[in-house]
Automatic annotation (TrEMBL):
NCBIfam families: PA_CoA_Oxy4. InterPro entries: Fe-S_Maturation_MIP18, FSCA_dom_sf, MIP18-like, PaaD-like, Zn_ribbon_PaaD. Gene3D superfamilies: Fe-S cluster assembly (FSCA) (3.30.300.130). It comes from Azospirillum rugosum. This is Ring-1,2-phenylacetyl-CoA epoxidase subunit PaaD. Residues 129-177 form the PaaD zinc beta ribbon domain. Residues 26-86 form the MIP18 family-like domain. SUPFAM superfamilies: Fe-S cluster assembly (FSCA) domain-like.
Length: 179
């Protein structure tokens, strides 16, 4: 059995007809938080490409890093294996896949909401493909909603975020970069 990207929703999760083991694995994976953005799970981020149950119930989890040089990828893979072990899947295989490359469009709607609630401006849908060629888009302040914002630094608290300031409420905030 395999659970993959729900193409119509743009989010990852178990599909209809997936077995109990695969569903339990997805629940365990929802507890693995990104170490650099701890308000999001690896499922919310769309880093889990799929969960497959093979012979004997052995699981294979396909993990996609947010970018190929992400320093947290090894730790995330370890935490995924630990969560699966704690959920009763001690021999789960975690495989890193880099193609196709991860995109911010894979962040779940709940993940986008959690970013905003934590003071991080989420990336707009469909922005990943436009990021390299489109003119700079106005980023809305996650605190007051104003689009009267400015970039302070192309790099925020992590490499995947930029630092902005809202000219309306004067608060600084990170924005998740479009990838």
């Amino acid at each position: 059995m395999i659970a993959d990207l729900a193409a119509d929703q743009g989010v990852w999760g178990p599909g209809p007809g997936d077995g109990a083991a695969v569903g339990a694995a997805w629940e365990a994976l929802r507890t693995v938080m990104d170490p650099e953005i701890p308000v999001l799970s690896v499922v919310d981020l769309g880093m889990i490409r799929g969960v497959e149950a093979g012979e004997g119930g052995r699981l294979r989890v396909r993990l996609s890093p947010t970018y190929s040089g992400c320093p947290a990828t090894g730790i995330i893979a370890l935490e995924v294996a630990r969560a699966l072990d704690a959920a009763g899947f001690p021999n789960a295989e975690v495989v890193t896949e880099v193609a196709p490359p991860w995109t911010t469009d894979w962040i779940s709607p709940a993940g986008l909401d959690r970013l905003r609630e934590s003071g991080i401006a989420p990336p707009p849908r469909g922005a990943g493909k436009r990021a390299l060629v489109a003119p700079e888009e106005r980023i809305a302040c996650p605190r007051c909603g104003s689009t009267d914002t400015e970039v302070i630094s192309a790099f925020g608290s992590t490499a995947c975020k930029a630092l902005h300031r809202c000219r309306s409420c004067l608060e600084p905030f990170d924005s998740f970069k479009c990838i």
